[in-house]
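User: Before I run my own analysis I want an independent prediction to cross-check against. Here's the chain; please return only the structure tokens and, at the end, one sentence I can use as a sanity check.
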Amino acid sequence: MDIRLLVVSLFFLTVACQDKKGSTESIVIDKKQYEIKNVFQHDLNAFTEGLFFDDAILYESTGSPESLPETESVFGIVDLATGKMDVKAKLDKQKYFGEGIAKANNKIFQLTYLNKTGFVYDATTFDKIDTFTFDSNEGWGLTNIDDATLVMSDGTDVLTFIDVEDLKSVKKIKVTENGLVLQNLNELEFVEGFIYANVYTQNRIVKIDIKDGSVVRSIDLSGLYYDAKNKSNLILEMNGVAYNKAKKTFFITGKMWPNIYEIKILE
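Assistant: Structure tokens:
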């Protein structure tokens, strides 16, 4: 049986009632993949492009397609009780389409989609303090290895490593899965020596060895997609993965999803 069908089947067999602020009961989806720890609210107008945790605070960045006038290119802090964002910065949507964000060296870095331009903000005041350009054709996902190195995706199979100080590319790696090129890498998260990446339109995340670019694991999260779809038929693809280091859980959402899912990925 296709694993996606298996996960979906198990999902609908095991979903339990949840309150608006999130369930405290662990809901097993597939013992070989993950379990849901909590389900939180998410703004239905948030066209999610980036997600990360810092000191127990969840940050989100969003884009603003012309076809969806209710969307905005912003980033800010998400209130998990309500799903609403406390906006810290907003781009002119007539010029820029907001993409991934990451924090390093007490700065927040934000990519844009087609302008080959990024913005730098003070992580305390959220004032814009710098801009930078990148050599990839497009900006998609962004994460940080540490306070010295960022990693960005551009919708291809390439991950670009960027020096935080001069914001120049220092190396690129190509990502492969089972020996084949893996395209459409999107939102990124660095966790314990590996990069986890959304694969655009596939409703899964992959675990990438940054030494050689090989995918060492694929986690099918289509059960979450179908649960979100059941609640709102306006949702788009999964995009958004953040890691809560203190709890060792991942927060997963998507573009215009009604929920953010806190999950534990099982070994």
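Sanity check: The chain has a mean pLDDT of 91.
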